[in-house]
Design goal:
Elements lengths: L1 H13 L14 E3 L24 E3 L25 H100 L11 H5 L3 H30 L5 H27 L4 H6 L1 H13 L3 H16 L2 H11 L5 H27 L3 H18 L12
Antiparallel strand pairs: 1-2
């Protein structure tokens, strides 16, 4: 009932006879449900579960059936042109062919570009590899140099540490020795066992004392009266006499060192003590003829005779008493200094009476006696006698 009423209203509104189909381009109402008679006259929507009511809408005067149902003319297929079907596949084929051509051309161009790029990339890669190898070589060289420098510093540090350790060990050893000395009780002081008691009973002590008087006492006597004797009783000015005296004592000091060296080289006791005879000869020369030439010759002979036996005399005195060597040395020095105290005034008195030649002659004789008596050694321990 509803369907028939709707159809009748549509026909009346469209102004076309009942039962005449609608034409394309008209403004007749069309079923908006989307169903067309291309499904046949027996088609019923309700058989497919669709809606039973159909809503109609009116097309405008400018509307077309084309595109309403997907580009087809569902209500009037007989009016469609016969050539509309094949035209669409041809266009599609042309588009596919053009796309294939473009793809081929693009692929070739891409292949050529990739080949060129790979050639450039190989060259760049080779250059980069060479640069990297050079940089690696420089880096290795720098690392080797740094390692060598570090090794050198380590070696220097090691040597410094070893040297410091050695120095520290030496200081520690010295400190240990000092501590040991502090811990060790001092040795008991040695007391004299009677050197004087032993010395006065030994003739060789007296012989050695004559040697000490000769090298210590006689030079003191000459220092007091030699210039006065040469200028007073001789033909020598005081200036030349002073020079001769200076030569005597200066050369005598040098000869003392010379005698010690000769003794170290092996000169015997007899030879060194025998040189005391030269001093006796010098005194005899100025006692006979106190002139300038004899004065300087006597100065050289006296210096040699007094200087060369000096080291031997000291050693002989110390060997007398090894337990306390200072005691015999002190005794010999005391005796040598006592004689001049007595003799110096006597020689001065002789010179004042013009008898200086006799006084100097007596001194020369004394030196001869001392020389002869000391040709034998005196310096061996008194306790062994």
């Amino acid at each position: 009932m509803t369907d028939q009423t709707s159809d009748h209203d549509a026909e009346a509104s469209s102004g076309r006879p009942a039962g005449e189909p609608a034409r394309s381009g008209s403004s007749d109402l069309v079923a908006s449900g989307g169903f067309s008679n291309e499904f046949g006259d027996d088609f019923r929507p309700e058989d497919f579960g669709g809606p039973k009511d159909i809503t109609l809408r009116r097309l405008s005067t400018h509307s077309s059936w084309d595109g309403t149902f997907g580009g087809r003319h569902p209500l009037n297929d007989a009016a469609a042109p016969a050539t509309a079907g094949p035209r669409r596949p041809l266009s599609l084929a042309a588009m596919i062919a053009i796309a294939a051509l473009v793809g081929a051309v693009s692929g070739g161009a891409a292949t050529l570009s990739l080949t060129h790029f790979m050639k450039d990339d190989h060259a760049t890669l080779a250059a980069a590899s060479a640069a990297a190898a050079a940089a690696a070589a420089e880096r290795d060289k720098a690392i080797d140099g740094a390692l060598a420098k570090v090794n050198s510093e380590l070696a220097s540090l090691k040597n410094g540490v070893e040297t410091s350790n050695k120095a520290s060990s030496a200081r520690l050893a010295k400190l240990g020795e000092a501590l040991d000395k502090l811990k060790t009780p001092p040795a008991p002081e040695k007391k004299s066992s009677g050197f004087l008691r032993l010395a006065v009973r030994q003739p060789r002590v007296y012989r050695l004392s004559l040697l000490f008087i000769s090298i210590y006492g006689v030079p003191m006597i000459l220092g007091a009266w030699m210039i006065e004797y040469l200028s007073g009783e001789g033909d020598v000015s005081k200036t030349l006499a002073g020079l001769a005296s200076f030569l005597l004592f200066g050369l005598s000091a040098v000869m003392r060192f010379g005698g010690a060296e000769l003794r170290e080289k092996g000169w015997t006791h007899k030879v060194l003590c025998g040189t005391l005879g030269l001093a006796a000869a010098g005194l005899a020369a100025i006692a006979v003829d106190p002139v300038a030439g004899a004065a300087f010759l006597a100065a050289v002979l006296l210096a040699t005779g007094f200087g060369l036996p000096y080291a031997t005399a000291l050693t002989e005195a110390q060997d007398l008493y090894p337990e306390e060597p200072a005691e015999p040395l002190a005794l010999m020095t005391l005796i040598a200094l006592l004689l001049p105290i007595i003799v110096i005034p006597l020689v001065g008195h002789a010179i004042s009476r013009d008898a200086g030649d006799l006084a100097f002659g007596a001194l020369a004789f004394f030196l001869v006696v001392a020389t002869l008596l000391n040709l034998r050694r005196s310096g061996y321990p008194l306790s062994s006698s």
